[in-house]
Each structure stands twice: as C-alpha cells, then as structure tokens.
Amino acid sequence: MKQLTVILATMLLLLSCGGRRQLSPEELSHKLDSVKNVEINEHLKLQGIDLEQSDNPLKMFYDSLNLQTLPISYTENYVRFLPAFKPIPSEILHYMDLQDYNEPKAVSLPESLGAKLILVAVDESPHLYSVWLYSLNDDYMPVDKLCLYAIEDKDDAINPDEFIQYFSITSDYEIHLLDYSKKQHKTRYEEIYYIDVSRKFVMRESSLE
C-alpha cells in the first residue's frame, strides 16, 4: 500500500509539471492497474502463490492447500478447529464469491473423475464455522457448491440441543447430509449426493423420518 501511495504521488507530480505531456485518464488508469497488480503479486508470493511460475492464481492457490484424505465425517472438533485448513488469500475471494465472509479457510480433497474438490469454511461467529464443498473445473474455477454444515439460526425450528447436523464423504465420493436425533439416537432426515460428469452435486436420494 505504501508503494502504491508513493507511485500515485509521483504520477500526480508529473502531471502537474509544465512542459510535459499529460496522461489521459485511460493511460493513468492503466498505469495504476499495473502498480496494483504488482502489489497483488507480491502479496500472493508471501502466501506461496507465485504468478511468475503460473498465470493462474486459482491453480497456485489450489496447489498450495493441504490435502484432506477420505473418508471424512462430522465431529464437533472438526467444524470448530478445522485441522489442516489454510486461510484463503483476499485476492482469491471474489473468484469464489466469498468477499462478504470472515476469515474463510480451505483444504483440498483427492480428485474424483477429474473433479477438483475443496472444503471451504467461513466464520459465521467467533469459532463457529459453516462448511461448504466446492467442485472446480479444469481452470480451477468453481462449478458448484454444497452446504455440508451450517450454523443454526436462532429462530430455526430445529432445537440444536436435540438435533445435530451431520455430514460425511465416503471414499467413493458419496456425500451424506443428515439431521441426527441425540435423544432417539437415530437419523431424522438424510440426503445423499454424488458428483456427476459436469462436476455438479446431484441428489441421489432423500429420506424423511
């Protein structure tokens, strides 16, 4: 930011000097964008994303993530402490429509049939995260996302002391989402999803107790 401020001041000084050709608004905008890109690249380098080695920041981001092995399933500690998750750089957030969330973090999953998968957690309140499963295309852009676990709304009809949201992803990439009754020790509601050839999450079946 300091570098950008210095360059801005220098440009304004040059524009005010007599006898020199003034930059058009388009030329000035282009120069400012170039400076901003340099700053973004330097910031990404500090997070292990070097655009001099790749022109795709999303690929560099994906490659920098830790790998979460399968199968995986909900535990209270998992959604609270998010082991192996890494912060998502601010420069990546707009690609994933995460600009309005606090401290999003991510971890990658093994690829399935060419589908690149990541888990993304967003901080809804201090140390309480919602967890989403994203699928990416060959350019590492998001194709689809599925909410695995969400913080219960205070006005929600489900009593969090009685039910818990539970998710699991099997080694065959079958995704189970369910509400589990703590009192009855059984599933009240379950949805099962799979990943189709277009890398979308498709519901295979649903059951309601």
Explained architecture:
- This protein is α+β, with helices and mostly antiparallel strands and 209 residues long.
- Helices cover 24% and strands 36% of the residues.
- The chain has 4 helices and 10 strands.
- The strands form 2 sheets. Strands 1-7-8-9-10 form a 5-stranded antiparallel β-sheet, with no helix packed on it. A 5-stranded antiparallel β-sheet has the order 2-3-4-5-6, with no helix packed on it.
- Helix 1 (2-16) packs antiparallel against helix 2.
- The chain is globular, with a radius of gyration of 23 Å.
Q: Provide the β-strand percentage band.
A: 35-45%
DSSP E strands, number: 10
Taking Cα atoms only, what radius of gyration do you get, to the nearest Å? 23 Å
Order of helices and strands: HHHEHEEEEEEEEE
Name the average pLDDT. Answer: 76
Tally of separate helices: 4
Tell me the major beta sheet. 5 strands, antiparallel
SS-derived structural category = alpha+beta
Residue ranges: pLDDT <50 for 5 or more in a row? 6-10, 12-20, 28-37, 153-157
Summed up:
With 209 residues, this protein is of the alpha+beta class. The protein has 4 helices and 10 strands.
Task: Summarize this structure as a short list of keywords or feature phrases.
209 residues; 5-stranded antiparallel sheet; 4 helices; 10 strands; 24% helix
What order do the helices and strands come in, and which of them pair?
Layout: H1 2-16, H2 25-46, H3 57-64, E1 72-73, H4 76-81, E2 86-87, E3 102-112, E4 115-125, E5 128-136, E6 142-149, E7 163-169, E8 175-181, E9 186-195, E10 201-208
Antiparallel strand pairs: 1-7, 2-3, 3-4, 4-5, 5-6, 7-8, 8-9, 9-10
